Amino acid sequence: MLEIYNNDSITIIEDLKDFITVIFVIVDDIYQEVTPTYIKNRRNSNHSIMSDSEIITVSLAGELMSIDSENAYGFF
């Protein structure tokens, strides 16, 4: 169980799906703010299977769960 402390409240994350969803929302919000337009609108990005935010999320979640290899994620 993970607890996230906000200014006035505590959010408890009880399962892996919610944990990954929270990571994705945070990553995607930051990604949209800091990534330059030329990277977001690069060629052939519409043909990709996963978005940049999803790839970053999977990498972060794997690191946070102490998974040492990208091969262990099962879809790379």
From TrEMBL:
Name the record gives this protein: Uncharacterized protein
Organism the protein comes from: Clostridium coskatii
